[in-house]
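Example protein
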Amino acid sequence: MITGAILRGQKVILVPYEAEHVQQYHTWMSDPVLRQLTASDPLTLDEEYDMQKKWQDDPDKLTFIILARGNDEDLSANRMAGDINLFLKGRPEDDDFEAEVEIMIAELAYRRKGFALEALRLMLTYVTQAVPPFSSCTTLPLHTPPPPPPLPVHPSRLVVRISQSNQPSIKLFLQLGFAVVRVVEVFDEVEMRMIEGDN
């Protein structure tokens, strides 16, 4: 899903996933621990470039790279910290339509410092736009381009699936107004959804 939006917070800047980010992303995904946490298959560098292009053009995927905020004038001077994704499943008019959220803070130096929470607030505000509950908790930069169709989505369509053992991530989404709605024992994961009226 192509967007030119750049979302700035106090600690992070979200920028569209471009070819210039692929080398670092590939380095991250060469780590077997990160691959296991993200349920990802190993790819060659060429395959990673192909994947970046497909994701950029896919109308069902929205991906931002999370930068640690430093120099606002030169975004290339900001360190890559991780990525955040939205995967659309189905059509907005379908009863079972959902928007699945994923986030990864790949760099150890940026974990447990509020980067994931701020990145999620920025992303979720952007993809829901003025739909509560996120409209009141995060202010997007002026002149932020609107999200591309079929966004925005209603917060009630947001879903996240997390390993039951990943308590820090579960607590993170609880802070954002998500609640556990289902435990899928066969996959050892919980499904969490935005509860309307929270936050």
Notes: The chain has a mean pLDDT of 89. Helices lie at 22-29, 32-38, 45-57, 115-128, 167-175.
